[in-house]
Design brief:
The protein contains five helices and no strands. The radius of gyration is 18 Å and the shape is elongated. About 75% of the residues lie in helices and about 0% in strands.
Length: about 120
């Protein structure tokens, strides 16, 4: 079975990846977090920080000029791997100390849900 560029784009297009990340975050944030454990709450906060960092990386990437001498199939593959790389960087960033957004959000949510 061979995959064409259209097939790869349909399976792994940027919109599909962004929708997956966004829908995961929305479903988590839409759930009742008042019954969450402290670990579950921290995981949600880290997911949010990873999403925020990913969006920030994507905005920064838009500022970098693109080469015009690239074929459309090569450009599609570059976009796919760039998307994967950005998601990976954002996830790794949030798992460490990150930007501190997750910790600040966690402390606020603990106070709001009375988990202290």
């Amino acid at each position: 079975m061979s995959l064409t560029m259209d097939g790869l784009n349909a399976l792994y297009g940027n919109d599909a990846m962004a929708d997956k990340t966004t829908s995961k975050l929305e479903s988590t944030l839409g759930s009742d977090l008042s019954k969450a454990t402290k670990d579950e709450l921290m995981d949600v906060c880290k997911d949010f920080e990873a999403y925020f960092t990913e969006q920030m990386f994507k905005a920064m990437q838009k500022m970098v000029p693109e080469s015009e001498n690239v074929s459309s199939s090569t450009k599609q593959l570059q976009e796919y791997y760039k998307e994967q790389m950005v998601q990976s960087f954002a996830d790794q960033s949030a798992q460490g100390e990150g930007l501190g957004i997750a910790q600040t959000l966690y402390e606020q949510m603990k106070r709001n849900y009375g988990l202290e």
